Every structure is written in structure tokens, then in C-alpha cells.
Amino acid sequence: MLKKIIIGVSLTISTLAQAEIIIGQSVPTTGIAAETGKAIALGASLYFNSINGRGGINGELITHIVRDDGYDAKRTVKNTIDFIEKENAVALISYFGTEGVAELIKTKTLDNAGIPLVSVHSGAESLRGNGSLFVFHTRASFTQETDRLVKLLAGNLGVTKIAVVAEKGALGQAGVASLKTSLAKKQLTLMGEASFDGKTGDTSKAAQELAKLNPEAIIIVALSKPAASFVQQYKEKGGTSQIYALSQVQFEEVAKTIGKKGGHGLGISQVFPYPYNPRERLIQEFQTAVFNEMGTGSGKEDSLAAIANYPSYAMLEGYISARLIVEAIKRAGKSPTRSSIYNALTTLKKYDMGGFMIDFSDKKRDGSNFGEITMMSPTGALTR
């Protein structure tokens, strides 16, 4: 029971008791992106709790402080400054969204504090390349995702009439730019573009515009709930295109929003291994961690049922980032500092987590290029 109470507390905006190893995390736990944000934070908490349950790292416990940013860039920045200046955090993990992290990079907030951030829930190219060396990415980039989708559509299926619907703002701009780059490699251009307000999530106008156009395929660059609404509205308006989404979309949220049958046929790009595949050692350990913290019965089925209560890919993302930062803290030695943890992260060269490889060698910060395309079945599950 104690472990479950810790999880609940860590998802509030309250500060936990002072400890020697403080890790900060800014994610939306309210608003349109709340379900995904909570799942990312929960995944990290699962692993941190397991470490603390075994006595911590070199006898030092981890305090995992999670603060709500409501998917608002200004709040992300404020939370980060508080972690740095008030909480004296030694590292940050699994932030959510493109715009907030872009602002941290622009203002050199992380660089000036010398604090590493492990994992960002975004594949935007703007956060990479000329971005901060203090941001360690665990996701494949949007361009890698769109390259796979365009290869499938144009290269394998002969689909050339492709349109996009995207959230207005940094996320949408980044995804659309990557899609255009991928299409250009095949000497193709977008057949059409539609956008919607990311704050309200109202996709009705975009659905109507693209239903009239009715291209062969549509790519969605959006969060889960508006993506689901678009799919439903598009079909209701008579659209027959094959629809695919980038990895920001969580299939469980789609099923909850428009029903399992409503989501049937939606293709989703994934940048992490399938959370229900026990053949991978990483997933076995992830499922065990979920069962130990949240299981109420016994056996594999109970573990899978517990995972299914949350966006599973997002929960796995948080879990992976926590494992990486713990490994870096172990390598940093007794009384870890921001500097020693940063240096330790750069030693994670071709680090095999058990079916998922991370490579932060030298100045490399794009730790993974893993990717696959899945599709929602009539039961709400995924086929791969």
C-alpha cells in the first residue's frame, strides 16, 4: 500500500520530503494532454519506487518531484527554474511537449544550470541538431517517423495523394515540416493541409475540409484526444482515406474517446517497443514493475490489466527514462551531482536495455532510432 500512496503523491504538484537525489519532471496532469502526461510520470515512478524499495542508490533515496504544466510552455519553464533553483534537482526526466523544451533550449536554461534532461515527449527536429547537449533524447525523430510512413504509403502501397491534419503551434509545425521533408525525398508534395486549435482540440472544420478533399491517406500530427475526434468526425463526414498518426497518439486514449470500433483501422507510428510483448527482456521487467506496484491479483493477466488502465506506450516511455537516469546515477558514484550525472550519461554507448538500444556516445543525443507502424484492430488492441 505504501508504494501506491507514493505514486499518488508524486503526481500532485506538492513537493515531497527533501532527499539527497532529487529528480524533477514537468508534464501535463490536467488539461487536454493529462492522460498521457500522468502515464509518463507514473512509468518513471514505478522504477524509482522499485529502486527506493531496495535501499536506493549507494544508500541514497530518490525523490521524484512531478509538477503539472498543463501543456503550457510558460509553466514548463517556471517548473524547470523551480527544480533548479528551489529544489536543487540533479537531473530532469521525461518532459512533455515541443514548445516548452524549445524555450528551455533557446534561453539556455539547462546549459547554464548544467542539468541534464533525459527524454522529451517530442520528435521535433528543432530540439535536436543545434539544440542543447543537455537534452538526451530517447525517441526517434519526427522525420524518422514520417520517413517510415511515406516509405510504407508511397514505396510499398503506391499511395501518393497524401494530406495532413496538424495541431496549430510547435508540435504541428514540427510534424508537418518533417512530413514535407520525407515526401520531397520521394519527389512528392502534400495534396492538402488542415489545422486546428490545439488548446480547444476542435477538429470539426479540419475534418470537413479533408473529407471534401478525400485523399488516399491522411497523416495526423496531434495529441490523442483531438486525433481521435478527427478520426470520428472525418468518417462521419464520409471520408474514406487511410489515416495514420505520429507517435504522440496513444491508442488506449483513442479507444476511450471514440470507442474501439471507432478507432479501427487507424495506423500509429511507434517509437518504443510494444508494451505487451513479453519476448523482450525490457518489457518483461516493465510488466513485472507494473504488477509489483499496481497489481491486485496474481499472474501475468493481472499485470497486463494494470497496464491497460493507462496509455501503455507513454508509461513505458517514463519507465525507460527512469532506468536511464538511475544507470547514470550509479555510474556517477557517491553523492552524484548534475555534472557527474551528465558525464555518466555520455558513457551510455550502445546501451542495451533488453530489446531497446540507447546510444549517447560522444556528442550524440539522439539515443534511439527505433520505430515500427501499428494499426488498431476492431477490439481496440494493436496489430504490428
UniProtKB/TrEMBL annotation:
Keywords: Signal
Superkingdom assignment: Bacteria
Protein name (Swiss-Prot/TrEMBL): ABC transporter substrate-binding protein
Entry annotated with the keyword Signal: yes
Signal sequence residues: 1-19
Keyword Iron on entry: no
Annotated family: Belongs to the leucine-binding protein family.
SUPFAM superfamilies tied to this protein: Periplasmic binding protein-like I
Protein source organism: Deefgea tanakiae
Pfam families per UniProt: Peripla_BP_6
Domain Leucine-binding protein stretches: 21-364
